[in-house]
Amino acid sequence: MTFDEIDHRLLDTLQRDASRTLQALGEDVGLSASAVQRRINRYRSAGVLARHVAVLEARRTADIVLAVVLVTLERESSGHHDAFAQRLLAVPEVQQAYDVSGDWDYVVVLATIGMARHSELAQHLFKDAPNVKRYTTMFVLDPLRTGTYLPTR
Amino acid sequence: MTFDEIDHRLLDTLQRDASRTLQALGEDVGLSASAVQRRINRYRSAGVLARHVAVLEARRTADIVLAVVLVTLERESSGHHDAFAQRLLAVPEVQQAYDVSGDWDYVVVLATIGMARHSELAQHLFKDAPNVKRYTTMFVLDPLRTGTYLPTR
DNA sequence: GGGGGCACGCAATAATCTTGCGTCCGAAGG
DNA sequence: CCTTCGGACGCAAGATTATTGCGTGCCCCC
C-alpha cells in the first residue's frame, strides 16, 4: 500500500483524534466526507489501521501504578520465550510488552491499581516464572507522554 | 468520581474498541443507548476519558523502527529535567516518555521510519543534549503488545 | 412521610455515516 | 493520437447513529 500526502495527513490526524467527523476531516485535507471514509476503509482492509480505542487519563484514574520492567530469561530457547510471552499476554495489566535486543530480553510496562496488585503481578510474572534470570523494575514517577502514535513518513 | 460495575465494564470495553455503537455497548452492560452516552460524557467531563484515537498496526507500516531508550541525566536539578522533557516532547516520534525511579532517569520509546531517522533523532535527543550523562538503546525485535490500556479496578 | 437530586428509558429530532451513480483523470494499449 | 479501462472523486438520497427533552422511579436525607 502506498500513501500520498493526504493519506499521511489523515493518518496523522486520526492517531491524534479519531472522534472527528468525516466531514471535518475532509475539510482539513480537502476531500469530501465520502472520499475520506473510503480512504479510511482502505486503511482498515489493508491492515494499516487496526482499531479505535478510548484513552484514559492515567493521572485521573485512582491509584494507578505504572512501572517499566526489564527482564532477562535464563535460557534462550524459543520454547521458553514463547512460554514467557504467553504468560505476559494473559495479564491485562501488561499494558505493553516488547521483545528487545541488548542487555535485556524484554521490556514490559505494567499498569496496575495500587502497589499491592503490582507486587502480586511481579511475583507471578517474574519471581515465580520458571525461566526468568533477572529483572529490574523502574516505577514511573511522571508519565510525560503516553500513546501509540506511529509516524507514516 | 466513583465507579460502579457498569462503569468498569464500559471503560474496559471502550479502551479495547471505541468504535462500537452506543446501542451495542448498552446491550452489553444492560443499559439504553442514551444512558451509555450520558455515562461516557461523565467520564469525559471528569477528565477520566481523555480522547479517542486510531491505532495503526506497527507490523503493517513500512519500515517502522521501535526502540526503547534508557537515559540518565548529568545533573539532577529540576531545570535540567524540564529542559530535557521539553526536548523530548517536541518530537512526534517520541511515542512515549516516562520519568522513572531507579538506575535510570527516563524511559523513552522512539517510533521512527527507518534506521537513518532513528540515528538522527538519537543524535539530537541524546548525544547532542547538554545534560545527558548516559543512555542505552534497546531495539524492539517484536512488539508483543502495544497499547494504552489502564485497569479501573 | 415528604421532598430533592440523580439516573434511567423512551421517543422525536438532529447529525453523521453509508452507498449508488455519474464524472473526471491518468495509464496502458491500439 | 485516440480509445479504453480502472480507480478515485463529489453529490445526494437513504440508513444508521447520536443527541436531547420529557416523564418516571429510586434512594438518600430531611
UniProtKB/TrEMBL annotation, chains A, B:
Name listed for the protein in its UniProt record: Lrp/AsnC family transcriptional regulator
Domain HTH asnC-type: start-end pairs: 3-81
- Originating organism: Kribbella antibiotica
Recall the taxonomic lineage recorded for the source organism: Bacteria, Bacillati, Actinomycetota, Actinomycetes, Propionibacteriales
Output the Gene Ontology cellular-component terms.
cytosol
List the InterPro entries hit by this protein, alphabetically: AsnC-type_HTH_dom, Dimeric_a/b-barrel, Tscrpt_reg_AsnC-like, Tscrpt_reg_AsnC/Lrp_C, WH-like_DNA-bd_sf, WH_DNA-bd_sf
Pfam family of this protein, just one? HTH_AsnC-type
Molecular-function GO terms, alphabetical: sequence-specific DNA binding
Q: Name one GO biological process term.
A: response to amino acid
- Keyword terms of this UniProt record: DNA-binding, Transcription, Transcription regulation
Q: Does the keyword Transcription apply?
A: yes
